[in-house]
């Protein structure tokens, strides 16, 4: 876990000067680190228990029930829309594969269309997973909490992308790590 001058916590390099590790049993490790650049100079807690990350939220506002219902409805509508698109795309893909190919140009065109449909389908399936995760977070009561820094995710970000997992500060860091 540790290297010479940094360690990796949740796939991010954190300088050794910014964290401390407290060990419980051999299967339990609790990490307390100070993220000056990411979290507005607040102490954040990360608990890693049996390899699963559990976030202890920092002080933030709790969403009203009406707001949660609004976002849940948006997520369910998006899920239904994506499922319809995936079903339509798989139907079109099946039709493309049953067509007869008279020459090489027909085969190349069919292959190209098939690859495009597959990429779109993969992206939509990934979005479905994110939507399901967001619906689970609504049920657990931590919907508007960033999964990296435990700060609240802004309403404008959630309105733009209801299944967002990270706040605007942490999102570029996550994407850079990917």
Task: Characterise the protein shown here.
With 178 residues, the protein is α+β, with helices and mostly antiparallel strands. The chain has four helices and six strands. It folds into two domains: 6-55, no CATH class; 65-177, Four Helix Bundle (Hemerythrin (Met), subunit A) (Up-down Bundle), CATH 1.20.120.910. A hairpin with a 2-residue loop joins strand 5 and strand 6 (52-55). Helix 1 runs antiparallel to helix 2. The chain is elongated and about 60 Å long. It starts with 5 loop residues before the first strand and ends with a helix. The relative contact order is 0.12.
The biggest beta sheet is recorded as: 4 strands, antiparallel
- Neighbour order of strands in the largest sheet: 3-4-5-6
Q: What top-tier CATH class of the largest domain fits best? A: Mainly Alpha
**Percent range of helical residues:** 40-55%
Tell me the number of structural domains: 2
CATH architecture of the largest domain: Up-down Bundle
CATH superfamily of the largest domain: DksA, coiled-coil domain
Structural class call reads: alpha+beta
What does the radius of gyration come to? Answer: 22 Å
Gross morphology is elongated
Strand content: 15-25%
Oligomer: single chain
* CATH topology-level name of the largest domain: Four Helix Bundle (Hemerythrin (Met), subunit A)
Number of helices: 4
Residue windows where pLDDT falls under 50 for at least 5 positions:
1-60
The total count of strands amounts to 6
């Amino acid at each position: 876990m540790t290297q010479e001058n940094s360690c990796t916590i949740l796939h991010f390099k954190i300088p050794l000067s910014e964290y401390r590790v407290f060990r419980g049993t051999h299967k339990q490790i609790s990490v307390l680190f100070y993220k000056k650049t990411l979290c507005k100079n607040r102490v954040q807690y990360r608990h890693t228990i049996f390899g699963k990350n559990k976030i202890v939220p920092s002080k933030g506002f709790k969403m009203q029930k009406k707001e949660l219902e609004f976002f849940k409805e948006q997520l369910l509508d998006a899920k239904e829309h994506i499922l319809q698109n995936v079903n339509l795309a798989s139907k079109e893909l099946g039709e493309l594969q049953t067509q007869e190919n008279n020459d090489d140009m027909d085969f190349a065109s069919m292959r190209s269309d098939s690859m495009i449909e597959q990429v779109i389908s993969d992206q939509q399936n990934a979005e479905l997973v994110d939507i399901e995760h967001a619906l689970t977070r609504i049920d657990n009561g931590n919907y508007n909490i960033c999964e990296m820094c435990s700060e609240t995710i802004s309403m404008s970000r959630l309105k733009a992308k209801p299944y967002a997992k990270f706040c605007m500060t942490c999102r570029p860091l996550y994407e850079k790590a990917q």
